[in-house]
Amino acid sequence: MIVFRADGNEYVGYGHVMRCLAMADAFVSYGEECVFVLADDKMQGRINQRGYETFILGSSYQDMEAECGTFCAFLSTRYVNLLIVDSYQVTDRYFQALSGFAGRIVYVDDLADHPYDVDILINYNVYAQKSDYQKLYAAAGQPVPRLLVGPQYAPLRSEYEDVKRPEIAEKVTNVCISTGGTDPIGLAKSLMSYLLQNKDRTLVETGFQFHFLIGNGNPDKETLLSMAKEEPAIHTYCDLPEVKSLFSKCDMILSAAGSTLYEICALGIPCITYALADNQLQGNAAFEESGMMLSLGDVRKVSDVAPKAFEVINDLAKDEAKRREISEKMRALVGGKGAKRLAGEIVYPDLL
Question: What is the set of domains in the chain, with CATH numbers?
């Protein structure tokens, strides 16, 4: 059995759970059984809908050491050959407490800022380098875990495995705006308000159709749905079972620099990104520096972010050559089979 330990809520977002779900689907394709363990029930329904058993610890996602007794008791009732932990709240003591309750422990990392004592470490981000981890562990005098590092391991759902190369439209019509599962700074509301207040320039003049992907944890969800009714060129989508269909019908996407960027790369749809949390800063910068995406920067620090966003959208829409260049670079980075590659290399390590 494989046990996933991850949380999703309005504070940490939904990305940790969503990428674990993609990994779980891949492990199931190899005949493995997967169970999810969560601090609370906020993501339980979504995980159950995907067909996975859940166990609720009744703990705080912020204090993982406090859950060790309950979690270890649960693990002791199962034969767990693999425990996959995906949280920024882990500590050395946490992993020490779990040691012995699973055949191997895997940590899904984004930060490369601490040498955790685990068997396997995953970091699929575009900025991740094995050499960074080797230096980190050497400085601590600890053995380096098995490293599965780089975008070739980006855990995407199976529908991204064999996607067709997109047609780059000569004229942009459909633009998707994605602000993550929770949108803690109210960016979607700011952008939609600006569209409605400047219709002549943002809607009539451009002829764009804007598709807002609204996360289920967005505190402005009901307001956004009501605002969108004022304008037929604005469309809203909430709690979609999958986003590939929406993304695929769009010519450009504006998205936060989270795990969603790797799905967009697999599709090859020109993208403008931005950071709205500290853990997105590295990814935002790396995608911009590589020329794979344009960036609005850290939108928490950008005054008048809405006019800047639509200025960048308009500029990229007018530059067909740039959009083609971006699309080629994105598709070269992520092939869409990262989850299967991860699962295969973990389940069958002796074949490597």
Answer: 2-157+336-351 (3.40.50.11190), 162-333 (3.40.50.2000)
